[in-house]
Amino acid sequence: MTDLERLSSWLRCPVCGADLSPVDRLVLGCTSGHRHDVNKRGYISLLGGSKHVGDNAAMLDARDAVLESGLYAPIAVAVAAAVPADASRVLDAGAGTGHYLRAVLTAHPDAVGLAMDLSPAAVGRASRSSDRIDGLVADTWRPLPVRDAVCDAVLDIFAPRNLPEFARVLRPGGSLIVVVPRGEHLRSLRAATSMLDVPADKADDAIAAAEPLYALLTREHVSEPLPVGEAIRNALIGMGPSAHHVAAGTGAGADPLPTETRLDVDVLHFSVRDGGRSL
């Protein structure tokens, strides 16, 4: 199977829903005649008219700094362990630069992955990071340009969730792995800045929203102290949605920035229910 054939094996046409296949050197097409160009770097954008904005280069650099530091390694370990051993095709929705997907593929040496993100820069980095990762620029909130029942597992890590679409692209009995922050996650850092708050019941809300499409199999609490110097503090602030809102306290009355905070998340493993893909 060529690289282009493998990329197309994940995808359906965003216009008509028919399966895509290679029709030229860097072009995928469907039987209805719709054509979609593949980036010379090997990934494809099927974004359509989305109004949402993906992470910019500065946010991606900040995320890479945090993830490559190893501070979030307990999350990667838990996610990789939650993916079933026989999973061979893994979609990471909101993949960013592919850090967690690479961890899963390292633990599952026969698997391949699809890194999907709204940011072309993120997808480019993810697809270049491993010859087992294909790249797709798409909006999670819209119908996914991904074939029915083509994925053994879907990862959703600190990312938006399109639960009906995830159920559609999962094979019967496939796994959805969701990571959500708890109330203590980065609390000391959030308290000293204007980072976005985290509801204490976020996991409970995610579990409730997953009914009736999914059955919860496991819920793992991952919590570790995080030492944070100035560079990592700045990266933690700059790597996510808070980068659009944050302003660290300054001036005589400002709270001092912490030198330690806490990693505190729930890793939720769901199985798509029988019939869930048709709901």
From TrEMBL:
Binding site for Zn(2+): C13, C16, C30, H34
Superkingdom as given in the UniProt entry: Bacteria
EC number: 2.1.1.187
Signal peptide: none
Record's protein name: 23S rRNA (Guanine745-N1)-methyltransferase
Domain annotation Methyltransferase: ranges: 90-174
Record keyword Metal-binding present: yes
InterPro entries linked: Methyltransf_25, rRNA_m1G-MeTrfase_A_prd, SAM-dependent_MTases_sf
Molecular function, one GO term: metal ion binding
Pfam family, one: Methyltransf_25
Species this chain originates from: Leifsonia naganoensis
Keyword Oxidoreductase: no
